[in-house]
Amino acid sequence: MSESDAILLETAGRLFNDARAAETFETAWGEIDAAGFASLLVPEEADGFGGSWRDAFSVFRLAGYARAPVPIGETILAARLSHDAGFDAVAGACSLAACAEGRIENGCFTGVFSAVPWGRNAGFVLAALDDQLIRLNAGAAAVNENQSLAGEPRDGLAFEGAPVETARLNGADVFGLAALLRTAQIAGAMDAALAMSIDYVNERKQFGRPISKFQAIQQSLAQFAEEAAAVNCAGDAAFAALARGEASFETAAAKLRANMAAGVGAAIAHQAHGAIGFTQEHELHHYTTRLTAWRSEFGNDRYWARRLGRSVAKDGADAFWPGLTRRSDAA
Amino acid sequence: MSEAMQTFNLRSFEPPEGVAALRKDVRAFIAQEAARADASTRVNSWAVADAAFSRALGKAGFIGMTWPKKYGGHERHPLERYVVLEELLAAGAPVGMHWIADRQSGPLLLRYGEEEQRQRFLPQIAKGELYVCIGMSEPGAGSDLAAVRTKGVRTNEGWRISGQKIWTTNAHNSHLMIALVRTEEGSERNAGLTQFLIDLSSPGIDVRPIIDLTGGHDFNEVFLDDVLVPDDMRVGEEGAGWKQVTAELSLERSGPERYLSSFGLFVELVRAAGPDPDDSLAALIGRLSAEIWALRQMSMSTAAKLADGDDPALEAAIVKDLGNSFEQEAPRLVQAMTEAGDDLLADSDLARMLAILLQVSPSFSLRGGTREILRGIIARGLGLR
Known about the structure:
The complex is a heterodimer of chains A (about 325) and B (about 375). Chain A is α+β, with helices and mostly antiparallel strands and about 325 residues long. Chain A has helices spanning about 5-20, 25-35, 55-65, 70-85, 175-205, 215-245, 250-275, 285-295, 300-315, 320-330, and strands at about 95, 100-105, 110-115, 125-130, 130-135, 140-145, 155-170, 205, 210. Chain A folds into two domains: about 5-170, Butyryl-CoA Dehydrogenase, subunit A, domain 2 (Beta Barrel), CATH 2.40.110.10; about 175-330, Butyryl-CoA Dehydrogenase, subunit A, domain 3. In chain A, strands 1, 2, 3, 4, 5, 6 and 7 form a seven-stranded mixed sheet that branches. Chain A has a two-stranded antiparallel ribbon with strand order 8-9. Chain A starts with a helix and ends with a helix. Chain B folds into three domains: about 20-130, Orthogonal Bundle (Butyryl-Coa Dehydrogenase, subunit A, domain 1), CATH 1.10.540.10; about 135-240, Butyryl-CoA Dehydrogenase, subunit A, domain 2, CATH 2.40.110.10; about 255-380, Butyryl-CoA Dehydrogenase, subunit A, domain 3 (Up-down Bundle), CATH 1.20.140. Helices cover about 45% and strands about 15% of the residues of chain B. In chain B, the strands form two sheets. A four-stranded mixed sheet of chain B has the order 1-4-5-8. A four-stranded antiparallel sheet of chain B has the order 2-3-7-6, with no helix packed on it. Chains A and B meet through helix 1, helix 3, helix 5, helix 6 and helix 7 of A and helix 1, helix 8, helix 9, helix 10 and helix 12 of B.
């Protein structure tokens, strides 16, 4: 890791932790916004930070590790998509919709964006509509506030003849990028929940000794660590693939692997913590409910498994290994 | 929690230029040399011993790839060797005869052996002509390797070694066994152990087959009755055996064989499913694809660390256990969800591979360190022991 990367990650970690402690969204968002994180993936010549996709993985992972209560990943991706589409840079928090339904007439959009992360707080929101990338000012929408199992805002936005910016998608995969954002967040949340579980079993005593001394506990936390390792490797590799270009295989594989890991991690974390981890008061549920919610967001196991399986089957049995190696050899 | 913990340190896999061409060479070699008649030998293929294939592979320069040229090696980059290994495994090539010698015996001699031992044995290993087996486990020393009792006593003519090794893979085809022996009388646990190269044609050696539950013969018992071993066949310092086998086990656990040995099953699954599978079959293919891809990333990261001279014992344990679990779950899922699983006696490559893997896969989390031992290593890395 270079020195500037180390500073970036140190700053991100600190700001995300501060954001978690903030009382209002504005306070939580303010410092992160002021530090210029939103332009992480925008090139320097366009006044951006000029970070790499690997940097983005690390920052998104830290957002998951700190469970930052802000759409920082969504905003970073929206800024990059906006830049690539030729839209003007905009200030403030932005978001992405998994699903947009509606029609465009005379430069205006009528329709609905569903489950938009922090839709109520976002300035602009992006989505794919057919073969177009569209961007709208969220202020023009009627907001139907909702939240995920973890309490993160997931709002419906209803637009009625709202002015819309459009650009050809040109291969941009809004849903896939958001899926990789969740993959990175799952990687971070897995490591955070694992660290909490390790601390807990080293402190908690039963039968006269810390429960970490029991092999049953050691074996299950080892399995947890394996799953955390798998999702971290998968996430890192998928973002590396993004840096090389087309990453549809890696996106599907990484989000699917992360989904599988999230289920195992949340279950073992709770088992290790016993009853205290099931309380509102304890910190653990913030992670386990996020792991559970993020597994469903931007493609559950079924979605990505079928999609990936169909694409592998279509290419044929003898194309799989050459394809796998060709993609990584291109690095 | 500002210092975000990460258990598995990532390392980029950056081989020298030209690996695409290297893959092409290996694929062409395999297409020409590997007998692919029986589908059941294309899975678990690093247990399939074929001396002719090993000699041809040696001749082509694919054994001892990273070793110095003066010992018959080819001075290639460790990640080039990794690329060759994964190509061989993905194709299900019969690499079992030389696998152990190339993977761990050669590196052991390079690291701890005497110059004369290197000159004598490494060129023959690199030619694919000299085969070696591992004499670690004993009847009373399985997971608890430090309990070995095979005894070596120094005499005027060398060492006299007596005892018994067991689960010795490929001993019946091997020329040498590298054995872990207790050389200090009264020593306990991991002290007083020494490694020896033992010529399996020596008087006093008796190799007896152990037939596994499939009827196959990989394992053996090796009895040693007052076997004379010259002192120039001692590997490394007297009493340094434990440190040496620990390093050897990292090599044994970190390779791509721990997730790729049943890759052929996946290929035949995709072939049988055809270009337009139903939803459940598509989902199965998708799931297995994702797991193979993720394991490969982990395995490559671990290989990159080894290539940099690190000892990624923790990462190797993680990849081996996840790889073993995947290779045990995959046949069960294929059995549960495909037509081949409906009739294991069917006349198809998929059914034949499935039948053999369902039987042999329990051994995957036993050989080279059990699941429980590996998870114990991981738990120690997490600070729980």
